[in-house]
Amino acid sequence: MTVHRPTHAQLRDITDSFNMAMSNEDISFFSDLIEPTLGVYDLLQTLPENLPQVKYPRTPGHQPAAGENPYNAWYVKTEIKGAETGKLSGKTVAIKDNLLVAGVPMMNGASFLEGYTPEVDATVVTRILDEGGKIAGKASCEFMCFSASSHTGSRGPVHNPHREGYSAGGSSSGSAALVAGGEVDLAIGCDQAGSIRMPSALCGIVGLKPTYGLVPYTGIGGIEYTFDHVGPMTATVADNALLLEVIAGGDGFDKRHPNPQVHPYTEALGQSVAGMKIAVITEGFGHANSQPEVDASVRRAAKKMAELGAQVDEVSIPMHSLGLAIWLPIGAEGATNAMMKGNGFGTGGRGLYVPSLSDALSTWRERADELSDNLKMVMIVGEYFQKHYRGRFYGKAQNLVHALRAAYDKVLEDYDLILMPTVPQVASKLSDVDDDRVLWSSRSLDIATNTAPFDITHHPSLSVPCGMHDGLPIGMMLTGRHFDEPTLYRAAHAFEQSCDWKTL
């Protein structure tokens, strides 16, 4: 089967887009000139896609009715049984709906993707099944995973299990709600600006953004290659460490890190924090949108760490306040190029490409009016600065990441962990957002001030619940050295076992 040959009109559109002045004779010349090259594409068309084999039988499942979906957190319910035995035997798992699960529908929160069914499993899905986990379905997520609140998904808002009508956080909104509501034991989320940690904090569960590249991103709809992360979301620290043990390590496809350092993470559990040094970061508190009760609760958690034997000091990292500003050009311009114009993959990355997903993602161009307002905003900003400033600010931000990483690393030379609130406030009302389009859009990133910097600096960062305000959870964020997840688990587990976080 041959590829379609470009018409003269299609060639004219392409050359015009490159500002090439061409006569009709020029167009005919290039039409003939490219014919041998098109023959190579004809050859590639006949070759197999070379995708990994699917190992476990499954059914497409079903989209649950409201009665079996109280938080609107499920996109699809199914049942995929893995190996008979393994570390996750007896555990049920929800998979965020930007991960590919072969034979099960995927929409990534976006109306234009509904109806797409992948033919391959993400690496983490295969690993979960290989260790005996049972996949219970696909968890709802925000529209193309671009919101810190839980109101942008095309199938309606996800509700916080602690209070109906309140945000579950985003973009891994369904994953957090299903764990917090006790519907599954474990869930997988993805984190580009805090999308694991923010909903974990707002729903009162444990969520880890691992070190960049520790867990393969293979078979997952991404936003930007330089800050895509995938990780575990669980009710307890012990389950979090267990799930990371299952999904961590290179897979031969994802080249984000050539040789990620993997540890037996569950061995960090049950250890004392005596002698550990923890830096409470001044700039993580007192933001313009911070609630005093949240800051106070996290400081009480830090005091509890000191009571457990850790040395806890207040430390200033002035550059932390610039972290979200540095993230924004990378997020806006990178997402516009890779996720939207690049049909989910872009070019230049080494790994597994899934052409069926690219084909499905490309259809946004015919349905662009359906995109969420905050995604439209990101694309407008990203394209403006790419076109009129030639990517200058994307490059400048990537250069500044080195300085930001160095600022954190300097403190981590003397301290084992740094500590701050995960998000500056408890969950907000969804109804407020519904009534106000400006507020609806602004909440795409307004609580990511503390979380987003660590996506671009690649440090492992974990949210653990540490208190309640007005019946809604508060999260404490611990961040450590690259590939030092065991220290995160050591501290978080000691804290978790020392108190009832709901009454701290």
Give an account of the 3D structure.
With 504 residues, the protein is α/β, with parallel strands linked by helices. The chain folds into 2 domains: 8-46, no CATH class; 66-503, Amidase signature (AS) enzymes. 36% of the residues lie in helices and 15% in strands. It has 16 helices and 13 strands. The chain has helices at residues 8-17, 24-33, 35-46, 123-130, 173-180, 197-203, 237-247, 292-307, 323-341, 355-361, 373-389, 392-414, 430-435, 437-442, 452-457, 485-498, and strands spanning 74-81, 92-96, 134-139, 159-160, 163-167, 186-191, 206-209, 229-234, 277-281, 311-315, 417-421, 461-469, 472-480. The chain has an 11-stranded mixed beta sheet, sandwiched between helices. A two-stranded antiparallel sheet has the order 4-5. Strand 2, helix 4 and strand 3 form a beta-alpha-beta unit. Helix 9 (323-341) crosses helix 12. It starts with 7 loop residues before the first helix and ends in a 6-residue tail after the last helix.
Chain-wise SSE layout:
Blueprint: H1 8-17, H2 24-33, H3 35-46, E1 74-81, E2 92-96, H4 123-130, E3 134-139, E4 159-160, E5 163-167, H5 173-180, E6 186-191, H6 197-203, E7 206-209, E8 229-234, H7 237-247, E9 277-281, H8 292-307, E10 311-315, H9 323-341, H10 355-361, H11 373-389, H12 392-414, E11 417-421, H13 430-435, H14 437-442, H15 452-457, E12 461-469, E13 472-480, H16 485-498
